[in-house]
């Protein structure tokens, strides 16, 4: 402690209610509660002029606006305009699942409302969550928000560097600057004893904890005095300090105007001492800007990596639906830009549901302790329904865009089927995929063949669910728009088969463990899986490690207590006692060869999993490798993780890039000091780059990736650019049930996880764009003549 250090003189007590949708009660009840809370806030402000209220997010205000009459809305607007109710630009406390476009959209919605009510929004507040994608700083700044109050929950997480109650300027990748305040838990004021009906002992443990933490003047005296002394001993530089407070010892807690009496009691007892004031986050920031030490606030550039990102993998099937909804929404927007379709209503609904799905509360507070409970199951289903609603709205947007573009779902007028193909990507494509519905193929013994401008195209087809997948070779530049005719022709096949049509004979020597294409030579080993993946044009391997997709599973026994082992695991997601098992390859072979794609299959065994299969599809004309990992998980009440290793990239040392919300960044390099660097949520995927050569891996189903595995170890925080940490092995973190509260306890059932790889002399951004574009191909749909 420096000789000049003095304790803070003013405590800004900020009343609010922490939003956890579905954590404490059903989602509809939580929505109604927050609307009712704001009605009560209006009454409290009339009763006690000194009372303040802080909106934690804009969603809370939306619930009030939907239920209030014009007079009540006018009253709330006036309280906001005069600063007695603080606004927040955050829509909800969200994970990083949300894409930049949707995140900007919901942020803009908040900014527009406040601007329309004569109070431009400057502040965003979040509580519970542990971090944000780097791009969030730019998104806030772009909407006029230059202050971020981040109340960190350090259970299984941490404030940057482990230090809260501090400020820094957070600079985004695009140069946007936000004044960030790192605050402790969102109920610190309750722990300090200022809420009569909501005293707690969560972040402060002392003798009052043993007595049940009943609020009293003596409790406030002891705890606040010690807390301010601790700040002073660490050379806290400000005369002010904030503390969020709830009206009850609960999430989704109501306001309690009685805390004004506790504040008055403190101030009466300390007329010349520390003063406690009821405040909003914006009032606190105003006071902070007036501090002498304000001019010494440092600047940080980089990702504020979220410790709680891992929970999304507790619901892998639902997560896939939400991710596919986002993909369909992107496709719909791109096609609507061509067709001129108005899909604004469907887009707005899809974005709303995606935002709700990204909200950090995954389930009921007792999801792990009582997974059989009706309340737990109801919230689980409700969260699933949000993903389903997002998918339905995005599908509606895509269907509308296709309809305006001429798609027909009616029977064709002629025997020739006609399909429109539009390349809505920025990549030149060489192959398109057409789904031909089974009811359109009327002649047995035939196969579909594609024609373009009267010329037969090179094709390849196979049966799929509800029809035939027809692959067609046709080069299409970005923006190209053309028509393909499809006709049934007598079935032909160059391979030898009997009347059973089983192709298991070849007239020429064939190696069932080697697959050779224009851009890839893939070698399989029956015991080790993929052992070689080389680009023949460069003689360069795109495999930088062993055993890709050989699933790694961790589980730890909990006996009759499923909660305590999870709760006590700290920031490790696998405790020291966890058992680690790696899948073993039992078979690997090429299963089919074709002019456009060839396919291979790996079979694996892993205790606790059945039917573990890795399906590989290699393009014969493009640098594209698509992989599907499928299995049935037995499931368990015990905590478990499943990783799928993705050791792809140039063999020489280079740089790992990840695509996060609003930012393409380098883990362990582009990060705020003191943040997590072992796992993170990504958008499209990641890229390994070295010497101008890049290997991109698109991860459409698994946004959570782990760096360096998940074995138990001392967690190393980011302490500066670290090229070695950046180059750790990457794995898709497919399943995670290690949380003890509101994430699903069991991830049993059938699962599929897909990956798309491309490579070449590209930068990271172009490589990721090409991976997604090559995998999807042009937008294709049937039209009438």
Automatic annotation (TrEMBL):
<dbReference type="Pfam" id="PF01074">
    <property type="entry name" value="Glyco_hydro_38N"/>
</dbReference>
<dbReference type="InterPro" id="IPR011330">
    <property type="entry name" value="Glyco_hydro/deAcase_b/a-brl"/>
</dbReference>
<keyword id="KW-0378">Hydrolase</keyword>
<dbReference type="InterPro" id="IPR027291">
    <property type="entry name" value="Glyco_hydro_38_N_sf"/>
</dbReference>
<feature type="region of interest" description="Disordered">
    <location>
        <begin position="558"/>
        <end position="581"/>
    </location>
</feature>
<dbReference type="GO" id="GO:0004559">
    <property type="term" value="F:alpha-mannosidase activity"/>
</dbReference>
<feature type="domain" description="Glycoside hydrolase family 38 N-terminal">
    <location>
        <begin position="10"/>
        <end position="297"/>
    </location>
</feature>
<dbReference type="InterPro" id="IPR000602">
    <property type="entry name" value="Glyco_hydro_38_N"/>
</dbReference>
<protein>
    <submittedName>
        <fullName>Glycosyl hydrolase family 38</fullName>
    </submittedName>
</protein>
<dbReference type="GO" id="GO:0006013">
    <property type="term" value="P:mannose metabolic process"/>
</dbReference>
């Amino acid at each position: 402690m420096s000789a000049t250090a003095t304790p803070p003189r003013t405590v800004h007590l900020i009343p609010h209610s922490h939003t956890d949708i579905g954590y404490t009660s059903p989602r509809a009840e939580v929505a109604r509660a927050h609307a009712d809370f704001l009605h009560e806030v209006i009454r409290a402000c009339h009763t006690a002029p000194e009372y303040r209220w802080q909106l934690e997010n804009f969603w809370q205000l939306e619930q009030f606006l939907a239920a209030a009459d014009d007079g009540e809305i006018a009253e709330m607007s006036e309280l906001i305009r005069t600063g007695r109710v603080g606004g927040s630009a955050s829509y909800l406390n969200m994970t990083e699942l949300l894409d930049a476009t949707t995140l900007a959209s919901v942020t803009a919605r908040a900014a527009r409302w406040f601007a329309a009510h004569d109070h431009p929004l400057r502040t965003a507040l979040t509580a519970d969550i542990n971090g944000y994608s780097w791009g969030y700083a730019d998104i806030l700044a772009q909407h006029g928000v230059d202050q971020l109050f981040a109340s960190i929950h350090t259970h299984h997480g941490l404030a940057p560097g482990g230090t809260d109650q501090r400020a820094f300027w957070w600079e985004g990748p695009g140069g946007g600057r936000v004044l960030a305040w790192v605050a402790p838990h969102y109920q610190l004021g309750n722990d300090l004893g200022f809420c009569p009906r909501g005293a707690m002992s969560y972040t402060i443990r002392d003798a009052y904890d043993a007595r049940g933490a009943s609020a009293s003047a003596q409790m406030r005296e002891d705890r606040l005095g010690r807390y301010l002394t601790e700040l002073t001993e660490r050379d806290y530089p400000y005369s002010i300090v904030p503390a969020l407070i709830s009206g009850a010892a609960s999430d989704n807690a109501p306001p309690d105007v009685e805390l004004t009496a506790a504040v008055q009691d403190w101030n009466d007892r300390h007329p010349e001492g520390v003063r406690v004031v009821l405040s909003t986050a914006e009032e606190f920031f105003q006071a902070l800007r007036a501090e002498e030490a304000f001019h010494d606030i440092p600047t940080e550039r980089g990702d504020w990596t979220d410790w709680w990102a891992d929970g999304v993998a507790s619901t892998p099937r639902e997560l896939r639906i939400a991710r596919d909804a986002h993909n369909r929404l992107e496709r719909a927007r791109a096609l609507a830009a061509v067709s001129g379709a108005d899909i604004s209503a469907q887009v707005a609904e899809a974005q709303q549901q995606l935002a709700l799905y990204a909200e950090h509360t995954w389930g009921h507070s007792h999801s792990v302790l009582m997974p059989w409970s009706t309340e737990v199951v109801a919230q689980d289903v409700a969260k699933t329904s949000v993903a389903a609603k997002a998918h339905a709205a995005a599908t509606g947007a895509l269907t509308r865009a296709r309809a305006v573009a001429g798609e027909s779902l009616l029977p064709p007028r002629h025997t020739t089927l006609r399909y429109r193909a539009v390349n809505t990507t920025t990549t030149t494509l060489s192959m398109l995929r057409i789904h031909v519905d089974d009811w359109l193929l009327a002649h047995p013994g035939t196969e579909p063949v594609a024609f373009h401008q009267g010329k037969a195209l090179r094709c390849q087809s196979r049966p799929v669910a509800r029809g035939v997948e027809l692959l067609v070779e046709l080069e299409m530049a970005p923006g190209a728009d053309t028509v393909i005719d499809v006709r049934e022709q007598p079935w032909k096949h160059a391979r030898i088969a009997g009347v059973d049509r089983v192709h298991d004979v070849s007239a020429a020597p064939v190696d069932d463990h080697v697959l050779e294409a224009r851009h890839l030579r893939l070698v399989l080993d029956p015991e080790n899986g993929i052992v070689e993946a080389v680009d023949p044009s460069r003689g360069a391997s795109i495999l930088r490690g062993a055993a890709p997709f050989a699933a790694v599973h961790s589980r730890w026994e909990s006996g009759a207590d499923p909660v305590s082992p999870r709760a006590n695991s700290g920031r490790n997601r696998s405790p020291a006692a966890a058992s680690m098992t790696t899948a073993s390859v039992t078979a690997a072979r090429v299963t089919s060869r074709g002019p456009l794609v060839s396919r291979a299959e790996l079979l694996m065994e892993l205790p606790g999993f059945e039917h573990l299969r890795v399906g590989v599809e290699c393009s014969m004309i493009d640098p594209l490798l698509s992989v599907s990992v499928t299995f049935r998980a037995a499931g368990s009440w015990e905590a478990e993780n499943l990783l799928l290793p993705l050791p792809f990239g140039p063999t020489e040392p280079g740089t790992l890039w990840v695509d996060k919300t609003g930012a393409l960044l380098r883990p362990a390099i582009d990060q705020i000091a003191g943040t997590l660097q072992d796992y993170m949520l990504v958008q499209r995927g990641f890229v390994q780059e070295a010497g101008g050569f890049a290997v991109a891996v698109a991860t459409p189903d698994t946004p959570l990736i782990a760096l360096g595995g998940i074995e138990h170890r001392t967690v190393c925080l980011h302490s500066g650019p670290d090229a070695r940490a950046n180059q750790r092995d990457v794995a898709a973190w497919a399943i995670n049930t290690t949380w003890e509260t509101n994430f699903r306890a069991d991830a049993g059932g059938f699962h599929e996880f897909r990956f798309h790889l491309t490579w070449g002399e590209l930068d990271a951004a172009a490589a990721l764009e090409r991976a997604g574009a090559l995998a999807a191909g042009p937008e294709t749909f049937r039209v009438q003549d």
